Structure to design on (200 residues):
């Protein structure tokens, strides 16, 4: 039968904590797969913010969403904001009214998997770590951050080490973290998730 993929496991953990009407963030929109998943999960009363610095990523995401929600009235769709901003700017870009109310933040690191994309443009720890810090600030207690990490491409291993180190150093009273990884395949993608602690 095998184990679930890191992408499937990330979605499973998000589904356990994300309810209709919630607010969620796709920190790396890419081709829009996670944005669509979050939009479907939060439903018509929910909100999704999707970040990406590459215009092509937002074009692909918009096209995916247009296909998914084709024919539906605006009142029957979730509110989706596609943001041409670095995920490191989350705290500044997301309205203050949503701070502390985010249920889930999904990261899918690496590069845009599109044949027309410049795959030399990759995520890096210089922006990813501030984005992760912002995510924890934005989360509501009990909210989750999922991070799919790709160490197998040039620059990916450095980012993977930085993200893993950051997660392992988080104070237990701030969040709890988990690592989902195949130790026999060190270059394979892996998943880190953090759940924000509820106040005692």
């Amino acid at each position: 039968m095998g184990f679930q993929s890191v992408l499937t496991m990330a979605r499973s953990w998000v589904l356990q904590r994300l309810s209709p009407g919630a607010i969620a963030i796709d920190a790396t929109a890419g081709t829009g797969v996670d944005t669509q998943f979050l939009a479907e999960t939060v439903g018509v009363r929910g909100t999704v913010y999707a970040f990406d610095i590459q215009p092509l990523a937002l074009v692909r995401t918009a096209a995916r969403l247009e296909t998914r929600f084709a024919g539906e009235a605006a009142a029957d769709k979730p509110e989706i904001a596609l943001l041409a901003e670095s995920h490191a700017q989350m705290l500044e870009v997301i309205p203050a009214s949503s701070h502390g109310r985010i249920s889930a933040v999904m990261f899918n690191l690496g590069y845009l998997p599109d044949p027309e994309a410049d795959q030399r443009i990759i995520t890096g720890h210089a922006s990813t770590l501030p984005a992760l810090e912002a995510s924890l600030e934005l989360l509501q207690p009990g909210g989750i951050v999922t991070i799919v990490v790709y160490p197998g491409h040039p620059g990916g291993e450095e980012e993977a080490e930085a993200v893993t180190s950051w997660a392992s150093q988080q104070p237990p009273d701030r969040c709890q973290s988990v690592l989902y990884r195949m130790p026999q395949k060190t270059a394979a993608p892996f998943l880190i998730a953090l759940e924000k602690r509820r106040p005692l």
In short: Residues 55-68 form the longest helix (14 residues). Strands lie at 23-26, 47-51, 79-83, 102-108, 139-149, 175-180, 190-196. DSSP finds six helices and seven strands in the chain. The radius of gyration is 16 Å.
